[in-house]
């Protein structure tokens, strides 16, 4: 086998045709384009001894619900890594330990090999992966420490843009994402960062226009288009335009359109939030989402991020038994976030499913400061806050619900939250009149 290299210069121990397929697959993965898993699978078909190909497919199976035999791919990666370079052996070991719940070797690997873009992408919780640390600042540091090795590379600029929006440095996030998109118009990470910058600043109308244009234009080949459609729907929810949300659901977000876990993460969460929205009548159920996702993911989620969404879906279909099984399974996990965040979240949601609104709201209030540990974005995690607001309203604790909505409106304007707040105030006034009569 000749000397082959990846896009960032690291040697690959494989044949040239397999290396070309793998490089194309990784490029698609980093741009979030369709076909990444297929091209990487092609690489190991061309060379069944290619350790990195096996390891990358195992990652995609674990993190993105790609239909592969994760254990078999890990076993082959471990076997064939013996003949590979030190960097490739380190990569395979990092993947194996990460999938077992120990991400320290992956963090060490990225520090030693900062241009290993696949594993750097894994380290940062974004649209593709759930991340490797419970502390956002640590993930930011991993990316920022690696960034100088890339120069003015469009992919790293897109990843940095996502870091900046998480740091609430929205102007910098927008600048980085636009610079990245100018060089790589279809770059999914940069587009994703820009979507979050629009949302978090309450720039809903402009963000919606841009997102619709990108999805139909430069981003049309993106693998996770349902997630970008979810972003557009969040703008529509925020604007209070539930008719537009219904059209988007019918055209872009029905569960059958989703790939891998996206039916759960995107469609499921949207339906739940839509049902809570003032004026959100006749919202479709999550029955099809639950059926497509299956009990393996719903009750035994590989990541805490999936666990949060599994709990949401089980609550939405009033599956108290499923919530109990999810909680009990998470309580036995080695990963602290499964035990300390997902399990109590499932228990709190079980209280809501039983109509115990006061207790459920209190449990969610205590858990709130820990929810960031599940990974994902603020825009995704705030679904737990919204469940608490709904519980407080059901419990007739209107002032507490109003205060939470005030905090949200201080964070960013949204017609939806203004209407939600108005309903809370009106309900409080009515309750006061009844008491005084």
Q: What topology emerges from the helices and strands here?
A:
Elements lengths: L3 E2 L5 E2 L3 H16 L4 H11 L4 H14 L5 H11 L5 H14 L4 H9 L4 H7 L12 H11 L7 H13 L3 H14 L4 H13 L3 H13 L8 H14 L3 H12 L8 H15 L10 H7 L1 H5 L4 H13 L3 H11 L5 H18 L3 H11 L10 H17 L3 H14 L3 H22 L1
Antiparallel strand pairs: 1-2
Helix pairs in contact: 1-2, 2-3, 3-4, 3-5, 5-6, 8-9, 9-10, 9-11, 10-11, 11-12, 11-13, 12-13, 13-14, 13-15, 14-15, 15-16, 15-18, 15-22, 18-19, 18-20, 19-20, 20-21, 21-22, 22-23, 23-24
Can you give a write-up of this model?
The protein has 437 residues and is mostly helical. The chain has a domain of 124 residues: Serine Threonine Protein Phosphatase 5, Tetratricopeptide repeat, CATH 1.25.40. It has 24 helices and two strands. The protein has a two-stranded antiparallel ribbon with strand order 1-2. Strand 1 and strand 2 form a beta hairpin. The mean pLDDT is 93.
What would a concise description of this structure say?
This protein is mainly alpha-helical and 437 residues long. It has 24 helices and two strands. It has a two-stranded antiparallel ribbon with strand order 1-2.
Cross-sheet strand order for the largest sheet = 1-2
Mean pLDDT: 93
- Could you say what the CATH topology of the domain at 4-127 is called? Serine Threonine Protein Phosphatase 5, Tetratricopeptide repeat
User: In which range does the helix fraction lie?
Assistant: 55-70%
Q: Can you summarize the main beta sheet?
A: 2 strands, antiparallel
Number of helices: 24
Series of secondary-structure elements, N-terminal to C-terminal: EEHHHHHHHHHHHHHHHHHHHHHHHH
Tally of strands:
2
Shape assignment: globular
The parts where pLDDT drops under 50 for at least 5 residues are none
What Rg is obtained from the alpha carbons, in whole angstroms?
A: 22 Å
Strand percentage, roughly?
A: under 5%
Architecture of the domain at 4-127, CATH level 2? Alpha Horseshoe
Terminal-residue CA separation: 88 Å
**CATH domain class name of the domain at 4-127:** Mainly Alpha
- The helix/strand class is mainly alpha
């Amino acid at each position: 086998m000749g000397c082959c290299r990846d896009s960032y210069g690291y040697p690959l121990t494989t044949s040239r045709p397999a290396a070309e397929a793998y490089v194309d697959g990784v490029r698609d993965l980093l741009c979030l384009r369709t076909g990444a898993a297929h091209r990487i699978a092609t690489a190991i078909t061309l060379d069944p001894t290619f350790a990195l190909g096996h390891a990358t497919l195992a990652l995609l199976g674990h993190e993105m619900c790609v239909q592969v035999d994760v254990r078999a791919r890990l076993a082959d990666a471990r076997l064939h890594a013996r003949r590979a370079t030190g960097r490739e052996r380190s990569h395979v070991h990092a993947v194996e330990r990460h999938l077992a719940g120990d991400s320290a070797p992956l963090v060490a690997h990225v520090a030693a090999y900062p241009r290993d873009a696949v594993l750097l992408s894994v380290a940062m919780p974004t649209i593709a992966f759930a991340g490797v640390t419970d502390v956002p600042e640590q993930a930011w540091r991993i990316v920022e420490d690696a960034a100088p090795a890339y120069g003015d590379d469009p992919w790293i600029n897109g990843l940095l843009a996502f870091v900046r929006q998480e740091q609430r440095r929205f102007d910098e996030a927008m600048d980085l994402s636009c610079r990245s998109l100018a060089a790589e118009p279809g770059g999914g990470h940069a587009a994703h960062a820009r979507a979050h910058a629009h949302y978090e600043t309450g720039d809903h109308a402009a963000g919606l226009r841009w997102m619709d244009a990108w999805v139909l234009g430069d981003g049309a080949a993106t693998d996770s288009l349902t997630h970008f459609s979810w972003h557009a729907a969040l703008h529509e929810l925020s604007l209070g335009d539930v008719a537009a949300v219904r059209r988007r659901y019918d055209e872009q977000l029905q569960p059958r359109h989703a790939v891998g876990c996206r039916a759960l993460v995107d469609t499921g969460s949207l339906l739940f939030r839509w049902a809570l929205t003032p004026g959100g009548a006749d919202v479709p159920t999550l029955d099809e989402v639950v059926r497509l996702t299956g009990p393996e993911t719903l009750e035994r989620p590989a990541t805490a991020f999936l666990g949060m969404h599994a709990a949401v879906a089980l609550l939405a279909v009033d599956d108290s038994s499923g919530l109990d099984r999810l909680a009990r399974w998470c309580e036995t996990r080695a990963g602290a976030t499964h035990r300390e965040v997902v399990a109590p979240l499932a228990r709190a949601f079980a209280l809501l499913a039983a109509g115990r609104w006061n207790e459920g709201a209190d449990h969610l209030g205590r858990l709130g400061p820990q929810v960031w540990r599940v990974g994902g974005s603020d825009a995704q995690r705030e679904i737990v806050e919204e469940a608490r607001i709904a519980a407080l309203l059901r419990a007739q604790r209107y002032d507490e619900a109003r205060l939470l909505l005030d905090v949200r409106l201080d964070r960013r304007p949204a017609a939806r939250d203004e209407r939600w707040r108005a309903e809370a105030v009106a309900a409080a006034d009515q309750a006061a009149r009844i008491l005084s009569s």
